Amino acid sequence: MTNRVELPTGRLSRLGRAVADNPPPGPTRPDFWRSPLRGPWLTSVFGSVLLVGITLVFVTGLLSYAAYNPDLSGNNKTSGAGPLGFYLFDWPTSPSWFYRVSQGVHVTVGIVLVPVLLAKLWSVIPKLFTWPPVRSIAQALERVSLLLLVGGAVFTFVTGIANVQYWYVFPGSFYPLHFYAAWTFIAAFVVHVGLKLPTMIRALRSGSMREVFHTDTAHTRPEPPDEHGLVSPAPTAATISRRGALALVGGGSALLFVVTAGQSFGGVLRRTALLSPRFADPDDGPNGFQVNKTAAELGLSDAAQDPGWQLELRGGPDAEPVTLNRDRLLAMPQHTANLPIACVEGWSTSPQQWTGVRLADLTRMAGVDAPVSVYVESLQESGFGTVRLRGNQVLDPDSLLALRVNGADLSLDHGFPARLIVPNNPGVHNTKWVRRLTFEV
Amino acid sequence: MRRLSQSYGAHPAHLVSLLASFVVAGYAAFRLLPQDALGLAVWFVGTAIVHDLVLLPAYAAVDRLVHGPRVDRPEGPPKRLWANYVRVPLALSGLLLLVYFPAILRLSSGFEPTTTLSSDGYLWRWLAITAVLFALGGLAYVIRQRPGRSRGASVPT
Q1: What total number of domains does chain A contain?
Q2: Is residue A123 part of a domain?
Q3: Are residues A343 and A255 both part of a single domain?
Q4: Shared domain check, A263 and A384
Q5: Which of A55, A88, A211, A391 has its CA 20 to 30 A from that of A245?
Q6: A221 at interface of B, judged by CB pairs closer than 8 A
Q7: Nearest-CA distance B78 → chain A (Å)
Q8: Chain B residues touching A247 at Cβ < 8 A
């Protein structure tokens, strides 16, 4: 009985060993991979850059999510974050430049990391073809986790990069896809870092950056044989030095920075961002700064120019709605605030001089003292046509229902007859073509 | 505990941390899948496959074309002294295309109505940057090959 059971297992394990020892020809054989540069040290250099860079991009991504105040009803674009919104806090109005900087960092650093991510994946590609594909349950699970890591990383980067270029090819709305892919990626990333950090530190200590910087191509040798399967057992002569490879990756990042970052600085620097979506300003003049969505595109040119336009204010349950036309709004005390437009897509404008009525004054007119939030409705019916802002945003003295900008009436594309401008608020929450404000207590 | 580690193949903490990350992924899938399950699966696995099995082999093959046949001896000068002065501009230009091809190839119909900006010019600016990169590569090659430079110094980077 015992023999009859053991015999096949013995055969199977012999067969298993034979298969394990004889990978099929091709990338599963270690000597298929011949670059003399691959090795744990090089991988760890790229890995340590990504550790810092990805962390920065993830944290600024979390901040951007919080900036939308997704806990206020109607604001959430991610079909309900649930437990992933655990860290949310009341998004502040100060400093007014904060979202501009953090979102500029999110998009620019994300793009600048692309060559580092590619180099890191190149450096570990032999591991994809490890033979035998599965050695233990632990290794099998780790490989599933690596699919989530690589799939999540590529998916998150691709959706982000396509979105900032208005190329909506992904299967669904950008917000939930990018949000949940990022969480999937980061969960696998944290586990990966946890498992590999000791290896990374050891590998970094095994080589010397100083020595690499002093070694030319002719003197470039493979790293010592490793247990990870990264160092080629059959390396060719180096065609580029290790410092050359690092310079190429770093140069790629620098080049992407140069053709991208200017769109987040504005002014003359915008013209350096040669390939960025916001390379140019639309126009000269007071309304010549960046536009996101035009009245014509949304089909509301006529409604926005209707002389009968009135703003409706609603407040407490007992208060009657108040309606104000543009002349009456202009007759109210006017305030001026210098605030930028900063988009989730990473571009921004330098501060513009907005003039209009304080939201706090409108709150009182509506018969409300301390609103918890305001529900904003635009003539725009799709997308961000409605939004909720929190009480702290309503009561900030620089939060305006703007009627004029840079000394001129708002242009149609900047939200004529009236738009919101709130310090440190994501661009799409500075609602244009406002028709009704409901202050909620 | 030891028996579990042995049959599993790693420390139990390994299992716990992996399962924790799978829970996050599972929750994300639970939230997203009602949208477009097939599209999502194709995209998630597809992007990884396109990178690993298409993009990487493709750029490696192009690079092989540029730097020529492999030299098995680790010593000795590379066969094509000019190769790196071509492959570096090529790699940088390709990187810009990889990141910005939707703008360069004008793939977005929403760009102009949304931004009021022209989508002309991205292709030309990319080509101009590419030309400058290759010109700089050529210039660097000429400078490195000047008489008086030692043989060793003629090996790029």
Answers
A1: 2
A2: yes
A3: no
A4: no
A5: A55
A6: yes
A7: 6
A8: 157
